[in-house]
């Protein structure tokens, strides 16, 4: 099954997904792919005037985005807020993110590093490797340890960059069709075993410009496998119809989720786990 985790900016998609990934790993379900926690600082109360400052709302300022490569937990600096990159002299006008006029500066070298990670996953699938073992005290520990550093979820594309958001209510099939038996060629398309492929996130580079995390896109376009019968992709709500159109056919449909207990229960149930 393909799960599309969606919603507006700063609703906690990545934080929710971090917790779910650690929880699944603790239950013996391998999780591979990438998480994209934000990097930020806590503003001083005087920087957030009025009730917002007292209540804590708006106290976290997002400065950048890291990518955490699963299951190993390697952390890759991925994006810097565009205004900060310009001020610091790290802005590259020839980068993919600059060409797309994103609100974030993403180094092409960082994109290549994450693509190489997905290429390795694809190579292991082609070689017929078994799912990687899960050690909750080892690989996923690094991700769990990073939760305290994660203040807001990654949002590298969207209306803040100046484009007109698409209507998320149009287009895209949301019908889920499960298949527990091998298909005519003998490959199991969906089952209760295996692991979860995670891509956090796909944005304008991937879904509108055929750039960015192209290796992750290629892996998703292959559909389910015995190793990864299920995948979860983070995508902004206005880009969700594009993601459904591009990937749902390969996965026999998709399920759109918002962060919360109901979504957590659905993903766990797909692996035969209770809520």
């Amino acid at each position: 099954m393909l799960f599309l985790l969606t919603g507006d900016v700063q609703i906690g998609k990545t934080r929710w997904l971090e917790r779910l990934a650690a929880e699944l790993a603790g239950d013996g379900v391998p999780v591979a792919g990438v998480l994209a926690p934000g990097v930020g600082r806590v503003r001083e109360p005087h920087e957030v005037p009025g009730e917002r400052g007292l209540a804590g709302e708006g106290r976290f300022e997002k400065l950048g985005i890291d990518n955490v490569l699963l299951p190993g937990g390697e952390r890759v600096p991925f994006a810097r807020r565009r205004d900060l990159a310009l001020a610091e002299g790290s802005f590259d006008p020839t980068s993919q993110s600059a060409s797309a006029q994103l609100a974030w500066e993403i180094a092409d070298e960082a994109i290549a590093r994450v693509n190489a990670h997905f290429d390795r996953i694809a190579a292991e699938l082609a070689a017929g490797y078994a799912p990687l073992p899960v050690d909750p005290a080892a690989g996923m520990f690094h991700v769990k340890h990073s939760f305290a550093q994660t203040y807001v979820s990654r949002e590298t594309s969207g209306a803040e960059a100046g484009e007109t958001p698409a209507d998320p209510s149009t287009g895209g099939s949301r019908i889920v069709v499960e298949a527990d038996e091998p298909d005519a060629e003998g490959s199991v398309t969906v089952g209760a075993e295996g692991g979860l492929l995670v891509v956090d996130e796909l944005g304008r580079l991937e879904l509108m410009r055929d750039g960015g995390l192209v290796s992750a896109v290629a892996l998703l376009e292959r559909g389910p496998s015995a190793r990864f019968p299920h995948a979860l992709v983070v995508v902004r709500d206005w880009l969700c119809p594009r993601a459904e159109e591009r990937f749902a056919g390969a996965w026999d449909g998709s399920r759109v989720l918002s962060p919360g207990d109901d979504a957590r229960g659905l993903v766990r149930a797909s692996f035969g786990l209770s809520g």
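Confidence is low (pLDDT under 50) at residues 134-192. The chain is about 30% helix and 20% strand.
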